Amino acid sequence: HFVSIIGESAQSMENVDDDISELILSAEDSINKVKNMHSKISEKSDLKKSYLDDSDDESKNGSINLTNFTTPFNTSKYQEKSQGDTVQVI
Fold first, then answer.
1. Which of 40, 19, 38, 41 has its CA nearest to residue 30?
2. Among 4, 17, 48, 89, which one is least packed by beta carbons within 10 Å?
3. What phi and psi values does residue 51 have, to the nearest 5 degrees?
4. For 4-39, what is the HEC assignment?
5. pLDDT above 70 covers what percent of the chain?
6. How far is the C-alpha of 74 from the C-alpha of 83, rounded, in Å?
């Protein structure tokens, strides 16, 4: 009886191994399809190329000033005021 249990377990493990191998092959196939699609889209798309070419020209000739200015919000004065003005509603 013990031998039959070991034999059935071994067969079950082989089945699981076969299932896992099939899943791995399927996943690899799907990954390759996605990679191929990505390559085709990248080849057909000139967005990156044109963006890089245009950005150099615009940075030299651009009329818009994109200097970073900061606008403070949630300052300590604001927080102090809002804490004093809160009312509990029951």
1. 38
2. 89
3. -65, -45
4. HHHHHHHHHHHHHHHHHHHHHHHHHHHHHHHHHHHH
5. 50
6. 12
